């Protein structure tokens, strides 16, 4: 790794490409979403008419598989969050390196100017002393030893760079550990074996072979050893090929919901803006038992004014969900809140279609816990 005075490129002083990490964060988020959507589709598989030893073996292996896929989706999304934090720290550290370079250049100018002035003073003193000696004058002019005023600025530059490197190193270690915590330690974990096994069996069931094949490919890709790669010089996580290899995987939650026989999120048209009244007119038995939540959040209208969502659409019954009061703190105010916050960060220009698709993703993942359930 280069040091100050050897380069004017901040990335040579602090290596890494935050933009490359951002791309991988987006891929991780997309694959996390696909894993959750695959869980929904797998949970919807009905093999009631299939009998015999093969059917029994399938059910034994498959019964808990959707939950595993939910866990895999959460892990991939968490990995994206962790890497996003690292990318932000890397950007900050490289900005600090740029500042250190400017300080170093300032120090060099200070040194050069002071050295020139000192050299001139020595030359002047020498000439004067020679003239004094020739005139028989014993006066001898002395010049103070050179004191480099640029050294303190150079040290400030070193300190700035060292602090940035140290903080980045600490965050890199924490990031790598967080990723190792969710990376399979064994060559192939039980989860992996069950995942591949169930999907291989699922590929034999008419009507879901293509979905199973795409999900299986995504699962294998998800076993990349990305933990160590986060602190590499290029900071490139080996997920770049996913976009090319995941062609058969269904990307949008809306398509997954339809394939599983569920209704995707949609807007209707409300006749008034009292959405609680709208909801409880349909479900009077739930009044006092649930918190009414918007599938596409009200905040989305403020965040995406160009999407053109009307109040009548936002508060329509079709866009309302009931969340049991005892689950509201963890489900609505925590889990769903975090999901939407990630969406807002990653989608600065979302369309109405994007918002409804993400609401469908939320329904796919949490809809079984709503009241009435939507999955």
Write the topology of this structure:
Layout: H1 10-13, H2 18-43, H3 53-62, H4 65-134, H5 150-181, H6 190-202, H7 209-221, H8 226-229, H9 242-245, H10 253-259, H11 275-282, E1 290-294, H12 299-303, H13 311-314, E2 320-324, H14 331-346, H15 352-366
Antiparallel strand pairs: 1-2
Give the distance, in angstroms, between the N- and C-terminal Cα atoms.
Answer: 54 Å
Return the CATH class of the largest domain.
Mainly Alpha
- Label the structural class: mainly alpha
- Poorly predicted sequence stretches spanning 5 or more consecutive residues: 187-251
Q: Largest sheet, if any?
A: 2 strands, antiparallel
Tell me the number of strands. Answer: 2
Radius of gyration: 32 Å
General shape = elongated
Count of discrete domains: 2
Helical content class: 55-70%
The fraction of residues assigned to DSSP E strands is under 5%
Helix segment count?
15
Describe the structure.
By secondary structure, this protein is mostly helical. It has 2 domains: 10-251, Ferritin (Up-down Bundle), CATH 1.20.1260; 275-369, no CATH class. Helices cover 62% and strands 3% of the residues. The chain has 15 helices and 2 strands. It has helices spanning 10-13, 18-43, 53-62, 65-134, 150-181, 190-202, 209-221, 226-229, 242-245, 253-259, 275-282, 299-303, 311-314, 331-346, 352-366; strands at 290-294, 320-324. It has a two-stranded antiparallel sheet. The chain is elongated, with a radius of gyration of 32 Å. The protein starts with 9 loop residues before the first helix and ends in a 9-residue tail after the last helix. It comes from Saccharomonospora amisosensis. Residues 115-125 have a biased composition (Low complexity). Residues 154-181 form a coiled coil.
